[in-house]
Write a structure and sequence with these properties.
- By secondary structure, this protein is an alpha/beta fold.
- It folds into 2 domains: 233 residues, Rossmann fold; 161 residues, 3-Layer(aba) Sandwich (Trna Endonuclease, Chain: A, domain 1).
- The chain is 36% helix and 20% strand.
- The chain contains 10 helices and 19 strands.
- The strands form 5 sheets. It has a 7-stranded mixed β-sheet with strand order 2-1-3-6-13-12-11, covered by helices on one side. Strands 15-16-17-18-19 form a 5-stranded mixed β-sheet. Strands 9-10-14 form a 3-stranded antiparallel β-sheet.
- Helix 2 runs antiparallel to helix 4 and helix 6 packs across helix 9.
- The longest helix has 33 residues.
- It is elongated.
Length: 443
């Protein structure tokens, strides 16, 4: 299962992962894991009165931020209770600020039960006790050398997995909360924190952050699978009968699940690609041009460059049957305008003047695109049909192309059908080109 992740007020960022300010109104629902640094909550909130050497903040701001913090408190607690994972950087408690609605601090959005009877004390260092087991073993082995703690719990806090070297204070822990978890980890060393806080990442930094997030997710997968165990790390070294065999079976099943998930993702991609053909009957502008171009290619045409001095905004294709210039137009609730047809005539004349070969021209229309296919009016008015006949311009609806594509998708080896479609487009003789005689119309 893919973990949906967002970052809240963290100094680092990762490609493709949303970053959400804690003091914004953007919802945090819809995620499986949230990584955040709650010590940054006061950025933009506090102003320091240097003359009086004290913290000042307006009543208006404190009232507004208090409301946001209170809402975030309920939102994140509910998030964890429902099975989400909060990963928090363990930092010292910011001072409280008195305001009309109570005292504001950087802990206000977290459950109070997490800090009683385990208060957080400020303490700095970067030397840790060795962790030899547990679900966070690989995570600490990979990143423990890059951490520097700034605060610690003074007593047991959930499942502790990282301790200071001298006093054995807890600087990393995971607590069960409702159906979810709240995890505390130390912050990065200052030099790493400063580097990752820059707006421009090196490729190595991108790989580092991606690996960091990957290992957190892996550790929490282990926690969710095995549960939180308060046994000391050395207990993991004791062997029980059949344990290794069961672990191996679990890993084998997990590998099968991962393979199935990969196959599901591939099928979903195929399904998405297949659904995109429907754009032929509801899109306009560039989106309609893209899907028309794909449709022409599936029929055996090849897109080519215009030879006119300024190029063309229309689509130009060639095939063994000849060259065809296609103008693509979609409208919401109106038929095709004659001016659009005259543009096609002028562009065709310019293209023919630059070539030795003849060039056919077809206007592909998706008029009244917002209406169901069965309820659409005539897309080409009588004046448009007369102009097309006078200048030997073909007219065709994108719905015709849609049915042709459906037939090719169902019968990819039907080369005779593809050839017939190409001949109809290049050597059109009717006022309005129809591919329906060649394929049953099914929607």
């Amino acid at each position: 299962m893919v973990t949906k992740l967002c970052l809240v007020d963290t100094g680092f960022h990762a490609d493709g992962i949303p970053r959400i300010p804690l003091l914004s109104t953007e919802p945090l629902s819809g995620y499986d894991m949230i990584i955040l640094d709650w010590s940054l909550i006061f950025r933009g909130l506090l102003t320091v009165n240097t003359r009086n050497n004290c913290t000042m903040i307006s009543k208006e701001l404190t009232s507004r931020y208090w409301d946001i913090i209170r809402r975030r408190n309920h939102e994140l607690i509910d998030f964890a209770k429902r099975g989400g994972t909060l990963v928090c950087v363990l930092k010292p408690v910011e001072e409280h600020i008195d305001c009309n609605n109570g005292k504001v601090s950087s802990l206000n959005w977290l459950p109070a039960s997490l800090f009683s009877p385990s208060p957080i004390i400020p303490v700095k260092g970067n030397r840790f006790n060795e962790v030899s087991g547990g679900p966070f073993r690989d995570f600490i082995a990979e990143f423990g050398k890059d951490f520097a703690y700034a605060a610690a719990f003074t007593s047991a806090q959930g499942y502790p997995f990282l301790f200071t070297e001298e006093e054995s204070w807890i600087v990393g822990s995971a607590s069960k909360f409702g159906d979810g978890h709240i995890v505390f980890i130390p912050g990065f060393k200052p030099e790493i924190d400063e580097r990752l806080s820059t707006s421009v990442y090196e490729d190595s930094d991108k790989r580092y952050v991606s690996k960091f997030i990957e290992e957190i997710i892996r550790a929490m997968d282990n926690v969710k699978r095995d549960g939180i165990n308060n046994a000391p790390a050395w207990v993991e070294e004791l062997e029980l009968p059949m344990e290794a065999e069961v672990i191996e079976k679990i890993r084998s099943k997990e590998a099968q699940i991962n393979e199935l998930q990969r196959e599901i993702d591939q099928l979903r991609n195929r399904l998405g690609d297949n659904k995109s053909w429907r754009e032929l009957v509801y899109e306009k502008d560039e989106a309609l041009k893209r899907v028309v171009s794909r449709s022409m290619e599936i029929l055996g045409f090849r897109a080519i460059e215009s030879k006119t001095p300024n190029g063309l905004t229309d689509l130009l294709f060639e095939s063994p049957e000849g060259i065809v210039l296609c103008k693509v137009e979609g409208t919401d609730n109106t038929p095709i305008d004659k001016d659009q047809l005259l543009d096609l005539f002028r562009n065709t004349a310019e293209e023919i003047a630059q070539r030795d070969d003849d060039v056919s021209a077809v206007l592909i229309a998706n008029a009244f695109r917002l209406q169901p296919l069965s309820q659409r009016k005539e897309q080409f008015s009588e004046p448009v049909v007369k102009i097309a006949r006078r200048h030997n311009l073909g007219l065709m609806t994108s719905e015709e192309l849609y049915h042709a594509v459906r037939h090719v998708l169902a019968n990819p080896d039907d080369e005779d059908f593809k050839k017939s479609c190409r001949e109809s487009l290049v050597g059109h003789t009717d006022d309005i080109i129809s591919l329906k005689p060649m394929v049953a119309q099914t929607v």
